[in-house]
Amino acid sequence: MADRQETRGDRRWIITAILIFFLLLLVWCLAAFMLNSASAGALPFSFSLNSRLGADYGPDEFKGRLGVFRLSIIDDVLGDSGMPPDEVEDQSEKM
User: What is the pTM of this model?
Assistant: First the structure.
């Protein structure tokens, strides 16, 4: 008799979990359709998140001097590959 009640409780728990899962799945699907982000359309409710600034895709003004850009890891990699130190310096200068 105790086994019968225990299986009913187990079944009830599983059925409740499945119903909650499907309810949350339905809410998620409805939210996805409401927000409609894939169509890039306006939302039915507006939060005014747009900045209303014009897009500027031009290059930024560069004021200053661009220093020497050196990847010091290249020296280490070439040295670890078995290259002699004088060849490592030659190769890194070529790069």
Answer: 0.34
Rg (CA), the chain: 32
How high is the mean pLDDT of the chain?
A: 77
* Residue in this structure with the two tokens 């004021």, named with its chain if needed: 63
Tokens of 24: 């949350």
Rounded to whole angstroms, how far apart are CA atoms 95 and 90? 9
Q: Is residue 91 part of a domain?
A: yes
Q: What percent of the chain is helix, strand and coil (3-state, nearest 5)?
A: 60, 0, 40
Q: State the total domains in the chain.
A: 2
CB 73 within 8 A of CB 52: no
